[in-house]
Fold this sequence. Notes:
With 128 residues, the protein is α+β, with helices and mostly antiparallel strands. It is 34% helix and 29% strand. The radius of gyration is 14 Å and the shape is globular. The mean pLDDT is 87.
Amino acid sequence: MPRDADTIHGRSLHSDAPNWQPLIDLVGASLAEWFMWMFDVELADGGKMHAYKHIATRRYLHLAEDGRAFFYAGGERYREALGYHAIREAFAGWESTSPEPDDTLAHVALLRHATERAVRRASLDDED
């Protein structure tokens, strides 16, 4: 279990206002179609985060509107993560799930591209 200092508290808002842009920005529009919007969260730092659930892997991507990615740490706590780690976690096992992508090779290429883009974005953030 992560230490509290490594996590941020988040309170579910129970709204009906999905925001798909953080997901589209991270994985692209084609891969975003594989997700359901589940809920939004108000973070203790004032940010707003959205929880998206992959329809096949049943794994979550938690993405703040400012582009940060998070892993759920339990008990209304979240741990910030690198975008490409969050992508890998959400898509883990996708190739062996149902429904599987219609064109597996094309979707694997899209996933690789999204991951590489997230790695580049993380590298640019490190330079700032």
